[in-house]
Amino acid sequence: MPFTKTKIWLTVKDYIFISFGMALYAFGFCGFMLPEKVVIGGLAGVGTIVYFLTDIPVAITQFVTNVILLSLAYKIVGRQFVVGTLFGVVMISVFIGLFQPFFPQALTDEPFMNIVLGGVICGLGIGTAFIHNGSSGGTDIVAAMVSKHSNVTIGRTMLIVDVSIISSSFFIFHHLDKMVFGYVVMFLVSYMADMVINGNRQAVQFSIFSRKWEEIATAINNEAHRGCTVFTGEGWYSKQEVKMLLVMCRKIEAVTISKIVKSIDPNAFLTQANVGGVYGKGFDELKVKMKLPKKQENVKV
């Protein structure tokens, strides 16, 4: 595929936002959770355990473990997954290594407040990196390898691994409250990451019925820069032919579409529905892995 200016810019933008997401995660982890001695899921949790047992910085443990897992994943999952994960792995280790010395104490004096703020910020960081095709590695790598050779889903594998890491903190440090805090963080990180990911993909679908459908469609094209699809139907009560406009737009553009419709035809019949994702030109790219058909050998009979 030839490199165009647009393609290069989109790639650079992805790397910038992945770096920002990893920096956000590192700030939430080092500034709020690590000083509270809370073990969270993923390799950050493993690094926390090792740090409080041996004084080895979290970043070193995290990076070394990620490299080992990526080496195994290269043979099991493939080169594309490893290359796509490597940048995020390096960035998260770098930022945690930079931030850890600056936060010997948590940024607030309230332990639960630190847990909530840390979980929210880490979730925002993970979500930001994910929507730009980034990953922090860790349990993602383990889950990818397990799903390659079993029917266990990636989400379930990540949950099992994270719960195991958090639960192990009780047997090492014997603090039930810290273990519970770890579960709270796991929930918050997952919830906030989902909010960021789904919020980025969320779109709105309009169904518009109006006698001035041509004016509305033209205005939506010219002012909102969105396409319209025209359907022909019949009103069962009036027994008259009607035209319906189908419009897809981002959630933040919904108010603009509504204003256009009502300014042209105040009596227009309008329905609005949230759509989990829209894929295609002008929206998100549908990213699925297609299995290539196996070449069938010619069998001579």
Average pLDDT rating: 81
Number of E-state strands: 4
Helix content: 55-70%
Structure annotation, total helices: 10
Order of strands in the sheet with most strands: 2-3-1-4
Largest sheet: 4 strands, antiparallel
> Proportion of β residues?
5-15%
Structural class: alpha+beta
The ordered H/E elements are HHHHHHHHEHEEHE
List unreliable stretches of 5+ residues: 295-301
| Through-space gap between termini | 42 Å
Radius of gyration over C-alpha positions, nearest whole angstrom: 25 Å
Shape: elongated
Explain this structure to me?
By secondary structure, this protein is of the alpha+beta class. 60% of the residues lie in helices and 11% in strands. It is built from ten helices and four strands. The chain has a four-stranded antiparallel sheet, covered by helices on one side. β2 and β3 form a beta hairpin.
Describe this structure in a few short sentences.
The chain has 301 residues and is α+β, with helices and mostly antiparallel strands. 60% of the residues lie in helices and 11% in strands. The protein has ten helices and four strands; from the N terminus they run ααααααααβαββαβ.
Topology (elements, then pairings):
Elements (H helix, E strand, L loop, with lengths): L4 H29 L8 H13 L3 H19 L2 H21 L11 H20 L8 H10 L5 H20 L2 H26 L1 E7 L3 H12 L3 E8 L4 E11 L3 H11 L4 E7 L26
Antiparallel strand pairs: 1-3, 1-4, 2-3
Helix pairs in contact: 1-4, 1-5, 2-3, 2-7, 3-4, 3-6, 5-8, 6-7, 7-8, 9-10
